[in-house]
């Protein structure tokens, strides 16, 4: 499971993110949650700056 995207921040700036997961050994749902958690952490960090 992989995901990429362009994220727009409230201040009008944006960033791109790509998360690639290979052979995680987890269920697809758990892998999707890992990707979502990573994306959320990056968003919180980027929007705090």
Automatic annotation (TrEMBL):
SUPFAM superfamilies, per the entry: beta-lactamase/transpeptidase-like
Classification via Gene3D superfamilies: DD-peptidase/beta-lactamase superfamily
UniProt protein name: Class A beta-lactamase
């Amino acid at each position: 499971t992989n995901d990429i995207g362009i994220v727009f921040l409230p201040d009008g700036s944006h960033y791109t993110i790509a998360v690639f997961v290979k052979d995680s050994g987890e269920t697809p749902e758990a892998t999707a949650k890992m990707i979502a958690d990573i994306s959320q952490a990056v968003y919180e960090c980027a929007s705090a700056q």
